Amino acid sequence: MNIFRFAGDMTHLISVLVLLLKIYATKSCSGISLKTQELYALVFLTRYLDLLTDFISIYNTVMKLIFIASSLAIVWCMRVHPIVRRSYDKDLDTFRHYFLVAASFILALLVNEKFGFQEVFWAFSIYLEAVAILPQLVLLQRSGNVDNLTGHYIFFLGAYRALYILNWIYRYFMETHFSRWIACIAGLVQTALYADFFYYYYISWKNKAKLQLPA
Amino acid sequence: LPDEKRHDEL
């Protein structure tokens, strides 16, 4: 484990905690895309299939359980919690995310490290995570103004995979036969999708103004 | 799986 990877995991954990804080503190999920949250739950459930079969470390297992539990808890809150679910922007969150699932699965069948059950689902989770933020970014542009916590949530979510890219570069030079081309290319695409958000987030931070995305 | 092939990341 290198510092980039650890920083990436902590940033990812912070993003989840910020979202849980937003939902818990404001009892509202306005501005949050349920579709993106459902895609993340699917990403973790399909990526961590090796949770029971392949023990890496306590840290690895604990973090996997945290990500699975938190993503399911957020989906539950937005779908079932009597107060939170009322603030869901149902008519703004209209991205056809099933296409993202289908495309990722087809790509995973074609491009994977090994044509096996776990490997295909692992590749599927990598591809799906790369595009899972799209419904959220579309909702953001439609809903215009963004509350602070939601802005921070998306910022940390985008930053974590950027740190993972540094981790892959580091491992590529430090470890002999390290290759994670699938994760690395998907990670680059994933981070690139946040490019314009990062720009507007920086502008709002520099001008001490509210985060505004152009409609 | 041999070590380098395992998915040791999150």
Protein described:
- Chain A: GO terms for molecular function: ER retention sequence binding.
- The complex is a heterodimer of chains A (215) and B (10).
- Chain A is mainly α and 215 residues long.
- Chain A has one domain (3-206).
- Chain A contains 9 helices and no strands.
- In chain A, helix 1 packs antiparallel against helix 7 (148-174).
- The radius of gyration of chain B is 6 Å and the shape is rod-shaped.
- Helix content of chain B is 0%, strand content 0%.
- By secondary structure, chain B is largely without helices or strands.
- Classes of the chains: A mainly alpha (215), B little secondary structure (10).
- Chains A and B meet through helix 1 and helix 3 of A and loops of B.
Backbone structural class of chain A? mainly alpha
The level of helicity of chain A is 55-70%
**How many domains in all of chain A?**
1
Largest interface: A-B, 21 and 8 residues
Radius of gyration over C-alpha positions of chain B, nearest whole angstrom: 6 Å
Order of helices and strands of chain A: HHHHHHHHH
Q: Which residue ranges of chain A are poorly predicted, with pLDDT under 50 across at least 5 consecutive positions?
A: none
C-alpha termini separation of chain B: 17 Å
Largest β sheet strand count, sense and barrel closure of chain B: none
Query: Terminal Cα separation of chain A, in Å?
Result: 41 Å
